[in-house]
Amino acid sequence: MLDLLAGPFLDYGFMRRALVGCLALSLGACPLGVLLVLRRMSLVGDAMAHAILPGAAIGFLVAGLSVVAMTIGGVVTGLTVALLAGLVSRLTPLREDASFAAFYLVSLGLGVLLVSMRGSSVDLLHVLFGTVLALDNAALVLIAAIASVTMLTLAVLHRALIVECLDPGFLRAVGGHGMLVHMLFLALVVLNLVGGFHALGTLMVVGIMMLPAASARFWSENVAGQMAVASLLGFAACVTGLLFSYHHSLPASPAIILAAGAIYGASVLLGRHGSLLASALRLRHLQH
Amino acid sequence: MVSAAGPAVRLHDLTLTYRRHPAVHHLSGRFAPGSLTALVGPNGAGKSTLLKAIMGAMRPHAGRLELDGIDRQDIAYLPQLAELDRSFPINVLDLVALGAWRRVGMFGRLAGSHVEQAREAIAAVGLAGFERRVIGTLSGGQLQRALFARMLLQDARLLLLDEPFAAVDARTTRDLLALIARWHGEGRTIVAVLHDLELVRAHFPEALLIAREPVAWGATAAVLSPANLLAARRMSEAWDEAAPPCAQAA
User: Fold this and answer.
1) B-side interface with A, Cβ within 8 Å?
2) Domains defined along chain B, listed by start
3) Contact at 8 Å (CB) between B236 and B42?
4) Per the confidence metrics, is the pTM higher than 0.80?
5) pLDDT computed for residue B224 by the predictor
6) pLDDT at A256
7) How much is the ipTM here?
8) Taking CA atoms, what residue in A is nearest to B93?
9) What is the average per-residue pLDDT within A43-63?
10) Angle between the N-to-C axes of helices A2-11 and A13-38, in degrees from 0 to 180, rounded to the nearest 10
11) What is the spatial order of strands in the sheet that B8-18 belongs to?
12) All domains of chain A in start order, with CATH
């Protein structure tokens, strides 16, 4: 049993690298996912993940599969789309979710086209689904650095982020810089999606951000607790997915996302707060 | 507590727009230091917009708004209950402790004394024992009590309350009115948006009746005369949502 669980990580360097990358990703991306859920911005995360694609594709066209070039490209287009979509929803009657959807569909089309112009379909799969089992040093350092910056920023801005979401009027009244806080938050989301995209690809990275966050809501009733739970569940999903993919020769990033999906399903059914089980128990408690 | 008389708010020919729609036109006058004013008027009359402008959340379209003897940060603002995300995972103690923001800041650490003050404020609004309850499990009245506790902690000299008694039970209304009376006695300046005219007549010495344009401002009994109320209703029936920000020649 132990051999089944620990063996792959003890025997193979690439599995250990994948594990470290996933740990860093869970520590950074999952707490951000909790804030996205609380701000009702789950779809915005999805849109920004797609927005990274054309930038990463341009980086790929210029420098091939280079971590640095693809990262810079992804950050630039990710932030641009976040700003433009926000601007469109502020200046026109189009709602924010619709304007994000419009931008991300265009980004997806553009990105796939750009990669296909020069690369093979293997390269396209690499960009869309990541290469968690082939993380090089540059990618690992990048993911770890982004996770560190994220955790530090979240610690510093914790109170402002919570109030900006709960009661924006209060933050304004006490002279907090709500807009600045919001922008910093969006920048963190883009950074984490770019970091995660090297491991899980642009299509799957948003899964590791959102699924554990949506699950955490069923296990804790305060923001800090939900963030911790989300990181823990995210890492658990990564380990499960990696092992599953190793033993059954399946692609790793979909396996990780499916594991996160299974955890989400279990949380909806069995979680401590607001799950179907918790509601049923409370009903019984009230009847007796 | 408050030593000097509360601050004043002066409005000079103030015009405000809300989402590029006209909201308040040509309003001039003054909320006197230590005054307790009810802001009344039909739906869409610009009452909430005026509060937001005083708080500094929006710039005047024309005219001026001056705060006398107070910084922007010394204002406590009570949002409408509907503006708060009630499913947010935060407990009563943490919500109330936010009232210490001005002393603690965005980054500072909450000291034991702040938590102690928050507990006292929670007890003062009759919510003792609810400290660890998540706000989603509170009734409208209980949540409003918690928000009043946060204002107790804020200890601000100018209080702006947007519909404090909407969706609140009668007993809570009575208790919160007593708190407002106490704040008034301490010399704070208070402006509250209200709908219940009987309540305004009984508890608020001054009133400002607006229907996008000011109708009357002064002693409550005179402001809420049948003639003024009829005029306000007529003005609201004549509203054209597509009108430009200010049709009246300045």
Assistant:
1) 52, 55-57, 72-73, 75-77, 79, 83-85, 88-91, 94-95, 98, 101-102, 106-107, 134
2) 1-70+158-169+188-250 (3.40.50.300)
3) yes
4) yes
5) 86
6) 92
7) 0.76
8) A222
9) 84
10) 110
11) B21-31, B8-18, B62-68
12) 2-287 (1.10.3470.10)
